[in-house]
Automatic annotation (TrEMBL):
Stored SMART domains: AAA (SM00382)
Pfam families: ABC_tran
Domain ABC transporter stretches: 5-229
Claim: Acyltransferase is one of the keywords in the record: no
PANTHER family cross-referenced by the UniProt entry: ALIPHATIC SULFONATES IMPORT ATP-BINDING PROTEIN SSUB 2, TAURINE IMPORT ATP-BINDING PROTEIN-RELATED
Name of the protein: Sulfonate ABC transporter ATP-binding protein
UniProt family annotation: Belongs to the ABC transporter superfamily.
Highest taxon of source: Bacteria
Record's keyword terms, sorted: ATP-binding, Cell membrane, Membrane, Nucleotide-binding, Transport
Gene3D superfamilies with a match to the protein in the record: P-loop containing nucleotide triphosphate hydrolases
Length: 272
């Protein structure tokens, strides 16, 4: 088995005296796609900020390729819920921001803009982009430095449902093409099951891992199959156990016939 890309052990994280993370421990292998799934306030963003080197005030050890996290690490990229593009820079200069002044002229910027479908918007300004386009530019910016690990904090929760599906598929294809490992925070069960190899379901007060799910579905993923999968059912039980214990979650759900023909999202054409 390969060395973990990320080895995380946060034994205790407090804000003032309140414990918000208590004993969260996991490893991520190179090339994996892992989600942290849990209700608001369970500590997902706090964990991501620790991995990004944005918060060093915790007990435990975190290692990325064997080294402690630090800000501006070339090994780590970060994508937020909002695109956070700088309004006074062109799309190209935003994507190439890490290369410094005039970074938009870097050859990788053009390649990345083409990959995210924004080749014609290199010289546009952020206010000229739709929400989905702006988030695609943010993804390109996150990949610019070729990070081994890309952290994403609820990256698609601010866009509409159709845009979200297109962005999820774009993210999967980019991660595969660039060999990028993904650690994604989400509170959306469908999204976690559709994207991930493994899901860590978290509970709150203080934040802990309530369970780990191996998704185990073939790639490319089939959205309809994901919806009826055992992974979905396990995530639902872990998140809402009490309310759902009347369901037989041991396989009956996964075996049910599909209620609808799966939609071929790739064949639908609309602008994101
Ligand atoms: P999530 O991303 O899962 O919604 P967060 O990691 O943002 O949760 O927050 C976890 C807990 O820590 C919450 O109870 C939140 O109120 C608290 N918290 C987060 N950031 C701060 C902060 N800067 N100061 C005090 N409390 C915070
Ligand atoms: Mg959060």
């Amino acid at each position: 088995m390969s060395e973990p890309l990320l080895a995380l052990n946060v034994s205790d994280k407090r804000f003032q005296s309140r414990s918000v993370i208590d004993g969260v421990r996991f490893d991520i292998r190179p090339g994996e796609i892992v989600s942290l799934l849990g209700p608001s306030g369970c500590g997902k963003s706090t964990l991501l900020r620790i991995v990004a080197g944005l918060d060093e005030d915790y007990r435990g050890t975190v290692r990325i390729k064997g080294a402690a996290p630090h800000l501006h690490s070339p090994d780590v990229g970060f994508i937020f819920q909002e695109p956070r593009l700088l309004p006074w820079l062109t799309v190209a200069d935003n994507v190439g921001f890490e290369a410094g002044r005039g970074g938009g002229g870097h050859p990788r910027v053009r390649e990345l803009l083409a990959e995210v479908g924004l080749a014609d918007f290199a010289d546009a300004y952020p206010k000229q982009l739709s929400g989905g386009m702006a988030q695609r530019a943010a993804i390109a910016r996150g990949l610019f430095a070729q990070p081994a690990l890309l952290l994403l904090d609820e990256p698609f929760s601010a866009v509409d449902a159709f845009t979200r599906m297109r962005l999820q598929d774009l993210l999967l294809s980019l991660a595969e093409r660039h060999g990028t490992t993904l650690l994604l925070v989400t509170h959306d069960i469908d999204e976690a099951a559709y994207l991930s190899d493994r899901i860590f379901v978290m509970s709150a007060n203080p934040g802990r891992i309530a369970g780990e799910i191996e998704v185990g579905l073939p790639r490319p993923r089939d959205r309809a199959a994901v919806e009826l999968s055992h992974a979905q059912a396990r995530a639902l039980t872990l998140l809402h156990g009490e309310q759902l214990d009347y369901l037989d979650l041991t396989g009956e759900l996964a075996a049910r016939p599909r209620p609808l023909e799966p939609v071929d999202f790739a064949s639908l054409s609309f602008a994101v």
